[in-house]
Amino acid sequence: MFLVPLLLMILAPVLGVAHGVEEGDAAFIQGQAGFQFWPYFYLGAKHMVTGFDHLAFLAGVIFFLYKLKEVGLYVTLFAIGHSLTLIAGVWFDIPANVYLIDAIIGFSVVYKAFENIGGLKSLGLSINPKYAVFTFGLFHGFGLATKLQQLTLSEEGLFENLIAFNIGVELGQLSALIVMVTFMNAWRYSDKFQAQSLIANSILMGMGFLFIFYQLTGYVVEV
User: Fold this and answer.
1) pLDDT per residue as tens digits for the range 39-85
2) Percentage helix, strand, coil for the chain under 3-state DSSP, each rounded to 5
3) Other CB atoms within 10 A of residue 201 CB
4) CA–CA gap between residue 105 and residue 102 (Å, rounded)
């Protein structure tokens, strides 16, 4: 029965392909001036728990991590990566095409699922998973930055607001991880875990491809 919640997390990217800032939230944030901790904190937390591409990648990352120490290490690497590019991307107004960045985020889901089913080994590739998670974290951070770059934000208190947004992202991520780790730990007690894990990661990889297709289609239409 624990396969069902996992599959819902895996299928979620299809439902969340357009997870930009909602109009109401955007209008409220753009109407604020100066340091506004709670609005930006709320926006960051909301964006993470509804950013199913980010959650799908994290699900792939923790899929075969059995120790909380390992989960903490990989999630920390991911958090450092996306925090750096989230803050730098907005603060320095680094240009990035939202569709291409999100396509790379979709690829990160494909990559992790492919790695989970032994795809890299079958190709004779040996890539340090820690480096991969950190690198993809950088792109996930740019993905978050592009959402804020689409808004007209007040320059007053901008850096502090970015920190508040990032704190919200981290707590939203932590909340989602608690749920995912709980389900994963319970599911692993099932005798069918190994067989079902192949199916789940194959579905996860398929959803990643669909996400890539959606974003690249948007890019072609925009160009």
Assistant:
1) 899 988 988 888 888 999 999 999 999 999 999 999 999 999 999 99
2) 80, 0, 20
3) 23
4) 5
| Domain limits, the chain | 3-12+22-222
106 vs 219: CA distance, rounded Å: 14
Q: Which of 177, 165, 150 is nearest to 82 (CA)?
A: 165
> Which residue is it, tokens 């991307």?
89
Q: Which of 34, 154, 133, 135 is nearest to 90 (CA)?
A: 154
Tokens in use for 208?
A: 């990643």
The neighbour count for residue 3, using CB atoms within 10 Å, is 17
Instruction: For the chain, give the number of residues.
Output: 223
In 3D space, the residue among 181, 186, 165 whose CA is nearest the CA of residue 69 turns out to be 181
Could you give the 3-state DSSP secondary structure of residue 92? coil
Cβ distance 106 to 161 under 8 Å? no
Q: What are phi and psi of 187, to 5 degrees?
A: -65, -35
Q: What is the pTM of this model?
A: 0.88
